[in-house]
Specification:
heterodimer, A: about 575 residues, two-stranded antiparallel sheet, 3 strands, B: about 190 residues, mainly alpha
Chain lengths: ~575, ~190
């Protein structure tokens, strides 16, 4: 079906809006489903915070469903919200448009990818309604605990639905990922060589590669865990005694599961972080009206990050029992990955230097991302070192760290991206005033939530305790801090509805955006129609003459030159 | 008519389908690499008792080789636009792939009858897991084979797409290669 294939034209309402093969519609479908399940994940986090801040206030929150909330919150946010939103949402919308293509290479497979993702979400949601409830094993699903009676969701279908949902998600991701790889390699407009691609495309491309190579580890782990749970095999299950009786398990290795999980789990951090890096690169250059500093260096730094991301996984397992030399190796690789990451941060900062910075909402998010990612990265240096990690392991310091680096940072980039590309999708601008209110509450609020967690962690408060009362080593002040954090979390949670309101109202009443409201150079703003129509480019595909960051070119009429403008038309 | 591939940059002269299938094969290779790693990790534990590999697996391997030969024949026919050769090759390729999967199921029954139950020992579990995962991927290939065969028998040679047939052949050879490696692993450990 490949060479010379005609563009698919939808027939009827269902074909146009539901079972659509248009990458833009599929992107919106991904975004809507991911945001909906993400709101559920946020609600679960608020329930957790209510228990920690005001223990016993809600009688319905017992230890069992607290752990279910923790588990489902983690899994939903990492996999079903961030991975799906960045790659399924942004990837689908931006890849064909920014490359000057009409659609993904395989539109039908692309459509299937969304529906299989949707199925995975449905399976996940079903686990809330089965008798055992969802799994409460923690998002890492470590055996033997995750499948043994006594763990919430382990007795019934909860854990199986989680593992099944993950397997289905991985199938969806693979279908989408194969499409992204093929489209980036094969469907670039004439002149769009690899080193003229916008950095976000590089980021999505590499994040997809990471996902395609890392998710199979999780798939294998999930399948083997299903075997252990259903067939009572012993891939991961050691000999276990319960009530004086030996269970049917024996000889398995829980550490094997940890290796499989984290071989996926650490690249997953970058599957989320790389698209965030890409968004920041685009936004910073455009809203600072300056070409990105060190494009080639940025690309190679991304490739280095993607490569090293595969040899750092065991830094999540320092306390699992590890040969000290192995710990030394993983500590070293973990610190080495900071080098290409720092290159990117320096380049963003240098891009801002002496730039004509416009304090738009997307730029606010960029600046907030830079600071937050820096802080999250610095606390990562603590945890990357074995000697410091061991005492801090499983404390709230870890919770503070990973939320700063892989929750708040990507979400800030995500919001920046949503504000930036919203006009391309709807043809209207989001309300600036509401955007700034939403930004400041979110930005300041998240710091008030996660900064104290670092301190609580230093005090040695364990991260997974349902209740911090009745422990001599936990000072009373921790409870006060927990109350403060909970109040902040409620405020930040409520503030997200400002964004939702802004989204809905601006789509109808927002200011008309015009074709290129930010004065960007990349191709998604150069379509004939705005918002771009089916097929994106009318009769002729664009031809690319330059890189995507030609801001402030001497002699040019405007302070930006789009990628599809030849030299002779600049002045 | 709007043409998706009109006026676009290419990667190393490859077609869309080639990039898709080669990337897919890379992902599948990674999957089996993880299973193999887990196998080698787990076999070092003292409860491991190797499974006697059923001799039927040699016959199944022969079937998969014949399936691969059939697909090579088809690919050759597609290059020459020889519809008859394509049809015969497709029939051989598909038939022996189905025989292979059926043979694997039969081998599982033989093992179960002999008392090598799935949960009795980790070596047994891995045997069933590895062979089932591979058979599932062959079944995926059979689904694609079904689609291509249906199109082939409906169309005449002049409008056949040699690329689809070629890629199907590549996937068949790849499945054979993966099986030979897995079979070698099971035999030698």
């Amino acid at each position: 079906m490949y060479e010379g294939q005609a563009l698919y034209h939808p027939k009827g309402w269902w074909g146009r809006y539901v079972f659509s093969q248009d990458h833009k519609v599929i992107a919106l479908q991904y975004i809507c489903v991911a945001l909906a399940i993400g709101l559920t994940g946020m609600f679960l986090s608020l329930l957790m915070r209510m228990q920690l801040g005001f223990p016993g206030l809600f009688e319905s929150i017992d230890a069992g469903n607290y752990y279910q909330d923790v588990t489902m919150h983690g899994m939903i946010m990492v996999i079903y919200l961030l991975t799906a939103l960045f790659l399924g949402g942004f990837g689908n919308y931006l890849i064909p448009l920014m490359l000057g293509s009409r659609d993904m290479a395989f539109p039908f497979v692309n459509m299937l990818s969304f529906w299989v993702y949707f199925l995975s979400v449905i399976i996940l949601v079903c686990s809330f309604f089965v008798e055992s409830g969802p799994t409460g094993a923690g998002w890492t699903l470590y055996p033997p605990q995750s499948i043994l009676p006594g763990t919430p969701g382990a007795d019934g279908a909860g854990i199986l639905l989680m593992l099944g949902s993950l397997a289905v998600f991985i199938i969806a991701f693979t279908m989408g990922g194969l499409n992204y790889i093929t489209t980036v390699l094969q469907s670039r407009a004439k002149g769009m060589n690899m080193m003229r691609m916008p950095l976000i495309i590089w980021c999505l491309f590499l994040a997809t590669f990471l996902g395609l190579l890392a998710f199979p580890a999780l798939l294998v782990g999930a399948i083997m865990l299903i075997f252990d749970r259903v067939l009572e095999t012993s891939f991961f299950m050691p000999e276990i005694f319960k009530g004086g009786e030996v269970l049917n398990y024996g000889g398995g290795s829980p550490v094997l599961f940890q290796h499989l999980f984290w071989f996926f789990g650490h690249p997953e951090v970058y599957i989320i972080a790389l698209p965030a890096f890409g968004i920041i690169s685009e936004l910073i250059s455009c809203h600072a009206r300056k070409n990105i500093f060190g494009y080639n260096m940025m690309v190679w730094a991304l490739i280095a990050i993607a490569g090293i991301a595969f040899i750092v996984w065991a830094h999540h397992m320092y306390v699992a029992g590890m040969n000290p030399y192995l710990g030394f190796f993983f500590a070293t690789t973990t610190l080495i990955i900071a080098i290409p990451t720092a290159i990117k941060v320096y380049n963003w900062v240098i891009t801002l230097w002496n730039a004509n910075i416009r304090m738009t909402v997307p730029m606010l998010y960029c600046l907030a991302f830079l600071i937050t990612f820096l802080i999250g990265g610095l606390t990562g240096l603590f945890l990357g070192n074995v000697a410091v990690d061991v005492p801090l392991s499983d404390t709230y310091f870890v919770v503070g760290h990973f939320h700063m680096v892989m929750a708040v940072s990507p979400v800030l980039a995500l919001y920046g991206g949503l504000y930036h590309w919203y006009p391309s999708v709807t043809g209207r601008m989001l309300d600036d005033r509401l955007g700034k209110i939403h930004f400041w509450i979110t930005f300041v609020g998240t710091y008030l939530i996660y900064f104290p967690m670092h301190y609580i962690g230093f005090l040695g408060v364990p991260r997974r305790y349902y209740s911090n009362e009745q422990y001599d080593f936990i000072p009373e002040s921790v409870n006060d801090l927990n109350q403060f954090i909970t109040v902040c979390a409620l405020i930040v949670g409520a503030a997200q509805f400002i964004l939702l309101y802004n989204f809905i109202v601006s789509a109808v009443r927002g200011k008309e955006a015009g074709s290129n409201p930010w004065g960007a150079c990349t191709l998604e703003w150069q379509t004939l129609e705005s918002p771009p129509g089916h097929g994106n480019w009318g009769d002729k595909l664009p031809v690319v003459y330059r890189w995507p960051y030609d801001y402030g070119l001497p002699g040019a009429t405007d302070d930006f030159v789009p990628q599809n403008i030849p030299d002779e038309q600049i002045t | 008519m709007n043409n998706i591939t009109n006026n676009e940059e290419r990667f190393m002269g490859l077609t869309h389908g080639q990039v898709f299938v080669y990337t897919l094969m890379t992902v599948i290779s990674i999957l089996f690499l993880f299973v193999t790693n887990a196998y080698l990790f787990r076999m070092n534990f003292e409860d491991w008792r190797s499974v006697p590999v059923p001799s039927l697996l040699w016959v199944n391997t022969g079937s998969l080789i014949l399936a691969s030969v059939g697909m090579a024949w088809t690919t050759n026919g597609a290059k020459k636009s020889d519809l008859q050769t394509i049809k015969v090759g497709l029939a051989i390729g598909g038939l022996f792939a189905v025989i292979f999967v059926s043979g694997q199921i039969w081998a599982w029954q033989q093992l179960t009858t002999s008392g090598f139950f799935i949960a009795a020992n980790p070596a047994n579990t891995f045997f069933y897991l590895i062979t089932a995962l591979h058979a599932l991927h062959v079944l995926g290939g059979i689904a694609a084979w079904f689609y291509v065969t249906l199109k082939t028998f409906k169309q005449d040679a002049s409008i056949l797409q040699p690329e689809s047939i070629g890629l199907l052949g590549t996937y068949w050879h790849y499945m054979l290669l993966v099986w030979v490696m897995l079979f070698g692993l099971l035999l030698t450990t």
